[in-house]
Input
Amino acid sequence: MIDPAGIDALLFDFGGVLVEIDFDRVCARWAELAGRPLHDLKTRFTLGEEYHRHERGEIGIGAYCDALRRTLDVDLDDEQLLDGWQRVFVAEIEPTVRLVEALRGRIPLYVFSNTNVAHYEHFRHRFAAALAPFERIFTSHEIGARKPERAAFERVARETGVALERMLFLDDTAANVEGARAAGMPAVLVRGPADVRDALRPWLDVAAERTGA
Output
């Protein structure tokens, strides 16, 4: 169990930890709009270099849509591609959202998401209630670096004023967890809400004691 005395802040991934995401929904919408078989678009769609550049803020949504048209071999306009693009978000992972709410005000809480401007502008409004307990949302497109890059974690530590070794990171991607650890940040691989509860148990137990729960 993690010693809460050694942790000054908690850092959460967004997609896959706080909110369920599903790229199959994206491809399904594009297939519908393009009149193409879903399997065809799923095979063509990749989270490749242009996707990563978009998430670092190196290219805008227009350039990324151009890349999508080439990769998918579709004749969809930007609006249609965005229509599908926002379908990636499914719903809050309610057990985890409730755990975070229980810790509001007891320890600084932050989010760090590999994302792009269009997705961020969408999810920060749609999931405003789930994000309310967090002091700040860090996004890759804003800071110009993606998880698991060391520079990304160092930037978050610098902006929060919390040392890397005193911030606990929770993410559902093994590479991101390994990257955080390599940078000196303790990290937990999240496969579901039970992993989040186990990681947060020291703080949740203290919260329960204070409220008499």
Q: What stands out?
A: The two ends are 21 Å apart (CA to CA).
